[in-house]
Design brief:
Shape: globular
InterPro entries: UstE-like (IPR010721)
Protein name: DUF1295 domain-containing protein
Helix content: 55-70%
Pfam families: DUF1295
Organism: Devosia sediminis
Distance between the termini: 37 Å
Transmembrane segments: 6-26, 33-51, 57-79, 106-127, 139-156, 185-203, 209-227
Length: 271
């Protein structure tokens, strides 16, 4: 193998994510948007190539799902920026990040690059364990969950895109959005839970567990923060709409079938 785990694979992974997420120096929000998607995609190509002689169907499928995730997310973000209905949000995002300069940008850059390595860690650990001959019985189970999450997120993003083309000034409450207000965030949470589960039979050290858990916990907290932020944003935009207020009271915010309708008072989250 070209890159043994943990050394030099982890430093190499960090170098790759630092290079890609440096897009954030062009525009700050790229640290956590295009830098995120393209970092995951690059890792999902680079390390399977490094471990290519030891790849099997399931480790290849694991890498394929991560590659599909990263490319789909990045292409969706690029396409979304071209939509007239997103223009106001794009300007607001640029305004929010104007104060992020100098040392703070460096901290964000290194932090998100390290996070992307931790999120990818279950796949890297699985590749290394398979190369050592380990039986990775958790892979098919975790990949099934991850595939479901990816499908949910992709479908939710597509449904909202199509809805906004027809009704740019209205909140989306059709399709998956009739069951949960943030189905795309829910799908992302399910996807990364599946990636974590896929590596369970490969985790063999405290470092393995620390990396995998750090990645999982951080992305779940980020999704909670994203849903909370969207709740405030929608309340500001649609708060005077009686139909929207009824939708808020009727449809759970993040978890389908769980009667949780607001995250405004949430204290533990990221983002």
């Amino acid at each position: 193998m070209l890159l043994a785990y943990p050394w030099p694979a982890l430093p190499a992974a960090l170098v790759l994510t630092l290079l890609v997420s440096a897009l954030g120096f062009i525009r700050t929000d790229y640290f956590v948007s295009l830098g995120y998607g393209f970092s995951i995609a690059l890792l999902a190509v680079a390390f399977p190539l490094a471990y290519q002689p030891q790849l099997d169907l399931f480790t290849l499928a694991q890498s394929g799902l991560l590659l599909a995730y990263g490319l789909r997310l990045s292409s969706h973000l690029i396409a979304r920026e071209r939509q007239p209905s997103f223009a106001r949000e794009l300007e607001a995002s640029k305004e929010r990040s104007r104060h992020i300069k100098g040392g703070l940008k460096l901290v964000i850059w290194v932090s998100v690059a390290a996070l992307y390595v931790a999120m990818y860690a279950p796949a890297l650990i699985s590749l290394s364990a398979r190369a050592d001959g380990a039986d990775l019985s958790s892979l098919p189970w975790g990949l099934s969950v991850a595939a479901l999450g990816l499908a949910l997120e992709a479908l939710a993003d597509w449904q909202k895109t199509q809805f906004k083309k027809a009704y740019p000034q209205r909140f989306c409450d059709t399709g998956l959005f009739s069951m949960v207000r943030c189905p795309n965030y829910f799908g992302e949470m399910v996807f990364w839970l599946g990636i974590f589960v896929s590596g369970l039979s490969a985790y063999a050290s405290l470092l393995d567990w620390a990396l995998a858990l750090a990645g999982l916990i951080c992305i779940q907290l980020i999704m909670l923060g994203s849903a909370r932020r969207l709740e405030f944003k929608q309340a500001e935009r649609y708060g005077d709409d009686a139909e929207f207020r009824g939708y808020e009271r009727r449809v759970p915010i993040l978890l389908p079938l769980v009667p949780l309708y607001s995250l405004k008072n949430l204290k533990v989250y990221l983002g």
